[in-house]
Amino acid sequence: MHWSRPSWWPGDDDPPTVVHCDELNRAQQEDTLQAIFQFVEPPVEGEPRALHTHRLAPHHKVVVSINPPDGSYQVATLDRALVDRMVMLYVESDFSCWSRYAAERSLDESVRQFLGSNSALLARRGAPMDLQVEPTERAWEMVSTLRKTSRFPGDLEMEVYSGIVGREAAIMFMRWRADHRHRPLTAAEVLNAWADVADKAAIQRDDLQAATINDLTTTLQVTPEIAPDQERNLVAYIAVLPRDLRFGLVKSLLKIPAVALAISQDKYDAVVFDAMRAISSEAFGR
């Protein structure tokens, strides 16, 4: 690909710009679709988006549009890996949308009035587009990024998430978020705000305790060094768990050397010793 920098190409000091790539699924597979990967996602995390040797400033956004693969257009099937790097939104027009467009463009009044009474004579809606959107690891990471950096009005949040992980997963996620009473405690809450969550921790259902335990284990595997107050909070949480869950959590924590050393202190015997004895019995088949 050999080309000069276009006059419209944004520079690093330009104000935020949306770069629109139209009719992407009518492009040639061997050149344009391969090049667009660098536009949608940089090849290396932290690197700017680019097209060949031309780099795009970080505050610029890329939007692509495609035609529906319903037989009405000659289109190419998009690479699953490319779809996985996009937020897919299905845009569909209706009469009110067209009517506003017609008024803004001052289309012929008789045409507008005729279609106002015969709106079915506009282009008919086709079957929903099969976007092959599904909940993958990359998709959930994109949801996480958007939740940290963006705010969506009303139903747009559901539409955006549906375009990343699929509608079913998006509905389940939004319902889970809406039900604050059934949200499991996080590792951060247990380790850093135990006084505020102790009562809730003691009455969590076993499935929610399992989610909290998993978050604790993962967090401590990544950051095993804990402060003295976090150490006490962790042991306090272990103390409120049912015996089988306590056994499972302690067994996992003992595999993390720094944490194992912390919870194995004599002052925690009343809480941890029973679980450790059960682990020893299991290990020796007693």
Written overview of the protein:
- The protein is mostly helical and 286 residues long.
- Among the domains are: 1-85, no CATH class; 184-283, no CATH class.
- Helix content is 52%, strand content 4%.
- The protein has 14 helices and 4 strands.
- The protein has helices at 29-40, 80-83, 95-104, 109-117, 137-149, 156-165, 167-178, 187-192, 194-203, 206-222, 228-240, 243-253, 257-263, 269-283, and strands at residues 18-21, 50-51, 54-55, 61-64.
- Helix 9 packs parallel to helix 11, helix 10 (206-222) packs parallel to helix 12 (243-253) and helix 12 crosses helix 14 (269-283).
- It is elongated, with a radius of gyration of 27 Å.
- The termini are far apart.
- The model has no long low-confidence stretch (mean pLDDT 78).
Q: What does the largest sheet look like?
A: 2 strands, parallel
The structure class reads mainly alpha
Output the strand order for the largest sheet. Answer: 1-4
Q: Write down the secondary-structure element order.
A: EHEEEHHHHHHHHHHHHH
Radius of gyration: 27 Å
The stretches of 5 or more residues where confidence is low (pLDDT under 50) are: none
Strand residue content: under 5%
- Overall mean pLDDT stands at 78
Query: What is the helix content?
Result: 40-55%
Judging from the principal axes of the Cα atoms, what is the shape? elongated
Distance between the termini: 70 Å
In total, the number of strands is: 4
Number of helices: 14
